[in-house]
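We modelled the chain as a single entity of 218 amino acids. Its sequence is:
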Amino acid sequence: MRRAPGLIFLVVTVLLAFLAGGLFIPRGDDSSSLLGSGVSVDDRLASLRMRVAAVERENQNLQTEVRVRQTLARHGRRLSSSETERVVASILEAHDRYGISSDVLLAVIETESGFNTRAMSNKGALGLMQLMPATGHEMARDLDIEWKGKEMLYDPAINIRLGSEYLHRMFQRFGHADNALAAYNAGPARVEVLNDAGILPRDYPGKVREGQRRYAPR
């Protein structure tokens, strides 16, 4: 069973205070014991700073998870509890693997499918992140995920795994966020044509950015 977010933040705060206290509150003859053990004060400080940084990262990850869960509670009512757990894990994994922030992924999902896991466009794009079957097949092949047909794209966790891979590739290919987002939606060839004409896509990226502002940390 997961701990309540409030309790988690309390534990993290207490731990941060404890670690910080270790830097400033003397405990008897600690300095002499450190020197006697061969551990320098600088090494001890560096170790404590690393531990504080790790706790702060964990705290940020927990806050991200809370935001994702709150968003899914508002918009993902069609998800079962097990699907919700897998979606949360997939979004956090995409953030860790590719550096794509959760607010960007949530905004893309909202713009593409409105959080409808069974969404299908008139062009045949499927699932939360509206992947075309050919694109999903390509991403699955490259990620060594067994392809069992386009129905896989209705699985929210798999859809996010494959969609985040494709979105990451668009960011790598185009660099500019607006181009990358537009390429995810309309295809890279279309964006290249627009760029050759001196046009920077605005419509779809603008919708994603609007959603991103709603899901960004306050």
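As a brief sanity check on the tokenised model: Confidence is low (pLDDT under 50) at residues 22-29. Residues 41-75 form the longest helix (35 residues).
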